[in-house]
Design brief:
- The complex is a heterodimer of chains A (about 475) and B (about 240).
- In chain A, the strands form five sheets. In chain A, strands 11-12-13-14-15-16 form a six-stranded antiparallel β-barrel. A four-stranded antiparallel β-sheet of chain A has the order 5-8-6-7, with helices on one face. A two-stranded antiparallel ribbon of chain A has the order 1-2.
- Chain A is built from 13 helices and 16 strands.
- In chain A, helix 9 crosses helix 10.
- In chain A, strand 1 and strand 2 form a beta hairpin.
- Chain A folds into four domains: about 30 residues, no CATH class; about 160 residues, no CATH class; about 100 residues, 2-Layer Sandwich (Dna Ligase, domain 1), CATH 3.30.1490.100; about 90 residues, no CATH class.
- Helix content of chain A is about 30%, strand content about 25%.
- Chain A is of the alpha+beta class.
- Chain B has about 240 residues and is of the alpha/beta class.
- Chain B has a single domain, classed as P-loop containing nucleotide triphosphate hydrolases (Rossmann fold).
- Chain B is about 25% helix and about 25% strand.
- Chain B starts with a helix and ends with a strand.
- About 10% of the residues of chain B have low confidence.
- The chains are: A alpha+beta (about 475), B alpha/beta (about 240).
- The interface between A and B is large, with 72 and 68 residues.
- Strand 9 of chain A pairs antiparallel with strand 3 of chain B.
């Protein structure tokens, strides 16, 4: 028996009970495999939904959520009202729950597990932990079963009984230091004497704006209006702090407990409401309002400093003739429609094989000067580089003549003129000699030729390896590129 | 549909700078408007690309080029490496690339870039572009002064609103002064299939030679367009011809 709800408890079934015993009490009970993975997913989804109450949500164990509501409760009219609203919403969504609010994580845990009932949240104002937790059983302290048994053997069943016991005397009763420390640590954390780290399941946003809708929104126009309002508010916060953000998350919470989220990204920090709205563009149409949306939330993350430069009067007057901001804005718009990372830029890379000397990365507002390739690369480079070198059948002079005839894409090409070879060795420092037992082929030296066929088409072909280089069979020929 | 309706729909509008109709080669390819460059036959994409890079605007200052490719083209004909781009443009242009699955997305991105005005030239490699798309791009390009070039496959035919359409195929290269057996400067035969600026010239073919040292595109006089006889390679004794690979 893994867990029990109110109805089960009422019939005397409690967690930890054997299934046979449970069936003895309730004959028509059914057994099912525990699917912890699905439970975890459901809990994560619930945690994501809880963001509407507080940006800081942590997952506790297998069945608990912790919300840091400092500074959030006033949005709902106080802790009691917030707890009631939370309770009502959870009940409406069909979740059995117990709520505890206290000044410490340990205190709230104790209240939720030992004091609260379904629909009756337990509240403890900050500073009242000592008195409030005293009547609760010690199992509310998040300590191990062994420790609970031990303490009960001494007649210690209430948390309050632990307050006045000399710590040293208590520690001596335990057979290990760690066990004793665990009890005192949990006690101190519950009372707020020692701090407890809080690990939110998602990093909190740097800035956010929220819009509660008294009247649920049911159409796209309402959502758009809400988004405009939120964006302007959020961009106001950002510009007040001199910041821009690269990532914006728009969340819409439906009154039936569902939520949808849209994220847009910018290549460099932005805070222009107009630009952010344009990125969201038609994506808001993806939000299904269902029976109505009652809360909108817009978060900004990956913030960075932003200098609002003044615009030159005309392009001729600017020292930098590229409008990098407008360029990023263009890239953002294309990415927003065609998918993140669609716009790419090719950057030089310090590699020896000429073809690998550049790498294509998503454009993220890189300085365009940084993209300047090194000058004076030796050799003629093809106008087009095929995605993959294509293996061809070749008749060539042995060992190092250019091809005389080859078949590329099912057509025989008779070579009229040829130039080469340009010998390009592999990067020996990245490929050490094979260890005993490994059979990975070693990269081979390539001889590149520029050849022209009867029609005037020019190809870049290479022979992968030299004759008798001891690195494999007879070398193969490949077409790698096409010359103009 | 009368002019007023067209204007209200944004299809027709006053041009900030009425483009002067270029009546000389390359008929505006390097300045403004929409131009199509098609392959003469399958596999001539490299020649078409070479002609495009040779005739494209050579920016005096640092500029950005947007290169949009449809994924099918990229798979079949590869991409243009940075080295080739630099060689042809003199190193001034930086390139932003974009690969899209569909031609419509590619053409949308082209229009977006043209309207934004931050790029100096937009090149798109698509499978096809219909009349409506080319009309839109022509208008956008002329209004914002950003030249757009479409690289099209050899199967493209039919109506277009583009300023010009060229069909490019390779020719045997120029004689190599230093090594008679090696290919020399690239030569292409370029057909002008459509030209709104000079309709009289439609159908004319140009034999062009690209000098990659001086970055100049020269007309080849008719007399020497024939393939130069490659010097007979002296027989290489010692190694037999053998089938490999």
């Amino acid at each position: 028996m893994a867990a029990a709800n109110q109805a089960a408890l009422a019939t005397g079934i409690h967690p930890g009970l054997r299934f046979t015993d449970a069936r003895a009490t309730l004959p028509d009970i059914a057994a099912e495999e525990i699917d912890r993975e699905s439970d975890r997913k459901a809990l994560s989804a619930l945690a994501a939904w809880m963001v509407r109450f507080s940006p800081l949500v942590a997952i506790e164990g297998e069945d608990g959520l912790i919300l840091e509501i400092t500074g959030c409760d006033h949005l709902f009219g106080g802790e009691a009202k917030m707890a009631r609203e939370l309770s009502v919403r959870l009940a409406r969504a069909g979740y059995g729950h117990r709520l505890g609010i206290a000044g410490t994580v340990g205190g709230a845990w104790a209240l939720a597990h030992a004091a609260a009932e379904e629909g009756q949240p337990a509240l403890l104002s900050s500073g009242a932990e000592r008195a409030g937790l005293a009547p609760l059983p010690i199992r509310a302290l998040r300590i191990s079963e062994a420790a609970i048994t031990l303490l009960r053997r001494f007649g210690l069943t209430r948390i309050g009984q632990l307050y006045d016991i000399d710590r040293k005397a208590l520690k001596r009763r335990f057979n290990s230091r760690q066990a004793a420390d665990a009890v005192t640590l949990r006690l101190d954390q519950a009372l707020g004497l020692r701090s407890e780290p809080f690990a939110p399941f998602r990093p909190p946003p740097d800035h956010f704006a929220r819009l509660a809708c008294p009247e649920p929104l049911t159409d796209a126009a309402g959502i758009d209006a809400g988004l405009i309002k939120l964006t302007e508010e959020l961009c106001g916060y950002l510009s007040a702090d001199g910041l821009g953000a690269q990532s914006f998350l728009f969340q819409a919470f439906r009154s039936d407990g569902d939520m949808s989220a849209i994220r847009v990204n910018a290549a460099r920090p932005v805070r222009s409401a107009e630009h952010v709205l344009r990125l969201f563009g038609e994506k808001t149409a993806q939000i299904d309002p269902g029976f109505g949306i009652d809360l909108l939330l817009l978060e900004a993350s990956r913030t960075g400093p932003m200098t609002a430069g003044s615009r030159p009067l005309s392009g001729d007057l600017s020292g930098n003739d590229l409008d990098e901001e407008a360029l990023s804005a263009l890239a953002d718009r294309i990415n927003a429609r065609l998918g993140e990372g669609a716009v790419t830029i090719t950057l030089p890379e310090a590699r020896h094989p000429v073809l690998m000397a550049e790498s294509t990365v998503p454009f993220a507002g890189q300085d365009m000067d940084g993209a300047a390739p090194p000058e004076n690369l030796p050799g003629l480079r093809p106008t087009r580089l095929l995605t993959q070198p294509e293996r061809v059948e070749v008749i060539a002079e042995v060992p190092d003549g250019p091809p005389l005839r080859f078949v590329w894409r099912r057509k025989v090409r008779r070579v009229v003129r040829a130039d080469g070879p340009e010998r390009i060795a592999p990067e020996w420092w990245t490929h050490l000699p094979p260890q005993a037992g490994t059979t990975a082929p070693l990269p081979r030296t390539r001889d590149y030729y520029r050849v022209e066929d009867e029609d005037g088409r020019r190809y870049w072909v290479y022979r992968d390896g030299l004759y008798g280089d001891g690195r494999g069979e007879t070398p193969d020929w490949f077409v790698q590129g096409l010359f103009a | 549909m009368d002019l007023a309706t067209l204007m209200s729909k944004g299809l027709v509008g006053p041009l900030t700078a009425p483009p002067a109709r270029e009546a000389s080669f390359p008929y505006g390819l390097d300045k403004h408007g929409l131009h199509e460059i098609a392959e003469a036959a399958y596999g001539d994409r490299a020649a078409a690309t070479g002609f495009l890079l040779a005739a494209a605007p050579r920016p005096p200052r640092r500029t950005i080029l947007l290169w949009v490719t449809q994924a099918s083209t990229a798979r079949d004909m590869g991409r243009v490496p940075e080295a080739a781009l630099r060689e042809a443009t003199g190193g001034k242009a930086r390139r932003l690339s974009l690969v899209t699955r569909h031609a419509t997305d590619a053409l949308w991105a082209v229009e977006e870039a043209v309207v934004s005005g931050v790029v100096s030239h937009v090149i798109a490699e698509v499978d096809s572009a219909d009349f409506t798309a080319t009309r839109r791009l022509t208008l956008a390009s002329e209004r914002h002064g950003v030249p757009v070039t479409l690289l099209l496959p050899h199967i493209c035919e039919g109506a277009t609103a583009a300023t010009t359409r060229w069909r490019v195929g390779p020719q045997p290269s120029a004689p190599n002064r230093y090594d008679p057996r090696a290919p020399g400067h690239a030569r292409w035969r370029v057909h002008l299939e459509r030209c709104r600026a000079a309709p009289a010239l439609v159908g004319q073919a140009f034999d062009l030679e690209w000098n990659d040292e001086t970055l100049s595109l020269n007309m080849v006089p008719g007399m020497v367009t024939g393939s130069p006889a490659p010097g007979e390679a002296p027989p290489h004794p010692g190694f037999p011809n053998r089938r490999t690979g």
